[in-house]
Amino acid sequence: MSSRQILAGIDRTELENLRERYPYRTNARKINAYEDAAYWIGVNVKRAQDLWLDRSPPLDILDLGCGAGYFLYLCRLFGHDGLGFDTDEEPFFHGTIEFFKVRRVVGRIEPQTPLPDLGKKFDLVTGHRVCFHRLARTENGEWLEWTPADWEFFIKDIRTRFLKPEGRLLLEFNRRQDGSSFFTDELRAFFESQGARIFRWKALLGADPNRCPRFKQTQKL
Ligand SMILES: C[S@@+](CC[C@H](N)C(=O)[O-])C[C@H]1O[C@@H](n2cnc3c(N)ncnc32)[C@H](O)[C@@H]1O
Predict the structure, then answer these.
(1) What is the mean pLDDT of residues 107-115?
(2) How remote is the CA of residue 128 from the centroid of ligand 1, in Å?
(3) pTM, two decimal places
(4) Most exposed among 147, 151, 177, 205, judged by the fewest C-beta atoms under 10 Å?
(5) How confident is the model over 175-191, as pLDDT tens digits?
(6) 76 assigned to some structural domain
(7) Is the residue at 214 inside a domain?
């Protein structure tokens, strides 16, 4: 299924109407133009392809910080069962989640705090353009963010409570404000010590810390 075919199935006028109903906040950045279905379908098809979701058997997928819901919408088109988890702070997302008929649990990921029970385990847990590790901006505009100890707690919680034995956790990070990678030397070493496979701006972790997971996983788990 190509991006063009996927886009043909989306009522883009209705998405744009949604944006009129929930206008931009004054400080919103262009990258957050989530009514631009052509752009976001393109981005999310690539994400799905990187994980071979367009050719793997049906998976149970949890998307943390699911935002507008594009990724889970695509997952459904590729035959997977998806659940989103996000705060309910962005009214436009409320509209798009309904528009894409994505299931979402509302909650907040907090440092050193277990996620609420979601009643099942997943083959794949994702977090794209992760923001939940950002705590507050410092005076010079940089983000105060989770420490390796906070990440360790989170990864252990996901591994033990949310991943099936062969499950995977995929975290995709934005660049830092100065254009550098999220993976500082310290964070790269930390994620690798947790058994992560790091590829560009993504970290992939398996349920078993002693086994380095693969992006390509086409067999039923
Ligand atoms: C940059 S957006 C990315 C949205 C989507 N994953 C994407 O890539 O298009 C970050 C998302 O994380 C959510 N988020 C931020 N902090 C969070 C937290 N502490 N707990 C849960 N979700 C959070 C936001 O509401 C938003 O939907």
Answers:
(1) 98
(2) 8
(3) 0.95
(4) 177
(5) 998 899 999 999 999 99
(6) yes
(7) no
